[in-house]
Design brief:
This protein has helices at about 15-20, 35-45, 80-90, 95, 125-135, 145-155; strands at about 1-5, 30, 50-55, 75-80, 100. The protein is of the alpha/beta class. The chain has one domain. The protein has a five-stranded parallel sheet. It is globular. It starts with a strand and ends with a helix. The mean pLDDT is about 85.
Length: about 160
């Protein structure tokens, strides 16, 4: 589930739409402040465990034991600048209550068409692919998507 900040919708450099179109079964919802009942409905559509892809301290969100089947996990991703995503997290208590998944040793971003303050600040697409690899194991199933993204970045730089 990709929750996209409204100011990201028309960004030509945005990666969330490409991610959504590339991941069957994903959903893309736009908003900053979500109606609590609507958001809870999105999170409770089935019996999957929701994990928020977001860094944070262990005491900031509840811990949960993960199912052995990654198909039983719904990854919730915030799409926006760091400032916008922090605001989305702050304004939506249901998101703050989700257990979090932080990336393990992220590589430098290939998203060279936008300014980043640190090399490990990844695009939504890159971060989601790395998180899915953490959950599914290093099968390489997301390598073609990352390669296509590299092509997208290269074409934007030309």
């Amino acid at each position: 589930m990709i929750l996209q900040h409204p100011l990201e919708v028309h960004q030509a450099k945005g990666s969330a739409r490409l991610l959504h179109l590339s991941l069957p079964g994903s959903c893309l919802v736009t908003g900053e402040v979500f109606d609590p009942l609507v958001l809870q409905g999105l999170l409770d559509t089935d019996h999957r465990v929701n994990l928020l892809l977001y860094p944070g301290e262990a005491d900031e969100a509840p811990s949960v034991s993960l199912p052995t089947d990654p198909g039983q996990i719904r990854l919730v991703v915030l799409d926006g600048t760091w400032r916008k995503s922090r605001k989305m997290l702050h304004l939506n208590p249901a998101l703050r209550q989700l257990p979090r998944l932080a990336l393990q040793a992220p590589l430098p971003s290939h998203y060279l068409i936008r300014k980043a303050h640190r090399p490990d600040q990844l695009s939504t697409l890159e971060a989601t692919c790395l998180a899915l690899q953490q959950l599914h194991g290093p099968s390489g199933q997301f390598t073609p998507l990352l390669a296509a993204f590299d092509g997208f970045v290269a074409s934007q730089m030309r």
